[in-house]
Amino acid sequence: LKIADDIRALASDDTFVGTVTIGVVPSALVNLIPPALARLRLAHPKLLVRIRSGLSGDLAQAVRNRDIDLAVVSEPRVLPEGLASYPICLEPLNVIVPLSIAEASDEDILRAHPFIWFNRRTWAGQQIEQHLLDRKIHVQPVMEIDSIEAVESLVAHGLGISITPTRACASDCNRLRRIPFGKPQKHRCLTMVMLERSPRQRLAETLLGELQQ
Q1: Among 54, 170, 173, 186, who pairs with 58 as Cys (CB 3.0-4.6 Å)?
Q2: Is 122 exposed, middle or buried, given 0-12, 13-18 or 19+ CB atoms closer than 10 A?
Q3: How are beta strands 70-74 and 187-195 bridged, if at all?
Q4: Phi, psi of 177 (to 5 degrees)
Q5: How far apart are CA 68 and CA 4, in angstroms?
Q6: Peptide bond into 34 cis (omega under 30)
């Protein structure tokens, strides 16, 4: 059945058919992915889309193993061999603090308050950790959380500060103050990864266009 779907994916017909499995990091699953998939489904009603949520590294490996067709992940420092990457958007990194903390530089705030890590097993978490090391900023860690939404909620309730990406299409939390991290400001890049020679190339390009829109 998988081979049959791949053969149909190569057809010249304008309508996609068959089944495609897409991996998505949780932070992109709430706001970015649903409207893009809704438009894709409207244009291609014979296409069945399955979603797998997970960490960027795990999803990239699943693409390499052909367990899933493509994935929307944080851009890695080094792209795994055999994969191609297509940028979707840049998400600015900010130091997030509760409104009760007075405005100050990002470095002063990071040194002065308890810090909540966004999971350092994720590529985004590793990127944030590396930027802190590069600037020789030592934080006071108190928690490490898997979910960006959970990190923001903990910060909003005064339990610490953190560094998170401002997610594409997400509404801003009015209980937080966001201070640009770094000069120039650092960013996380969301990308689509797939096999270098994939029969899903045409589908991936279509989905990429919807996501960028």
Answers
A1: 54
A2: buried
A3: antiparallel
A4: -110, 135
A5: 15
A6: no
Q: What tokens appear for 124 in the block?
A: 């985004």
Give the integer Cα–Cα distance in Å for 116 and 143.
5
Give the max Cα distance, the chain.
60
- CA-to-CA separations, 136 to 113, 125, 151, 185, in angstroms, rounded: 16, 17, 23, 16
Secondary structure E strands in 55-107: 70-74, 83-98
Q: Nearest Cα to 24, choosing from 195, 212, 193, 200?
A: 193
Compute the distance between CA of residue 60 and CA of residue 72 in angstroms, rounded to an integer.
9
Give φ, ψ of 19 to 5 degrees: -120, 135
- Tell me the residue type at 135: R
Question: How confident is the model over 151-209, as pLDDT tens digits?
Answer: 999 999 999 999 999 887 777 667 899 999 999 999 999 999 999 988 788 888 899 99
Beta-carbon contacts of 80 under 8 Å, excluding residues fewer than 6 positions away, are: 60, 61, 64
Element (H, E) at 118: strand 114-118
Q: How many residues does the chain have?
A: 213
* Rg from Cα positions in the chain: 19
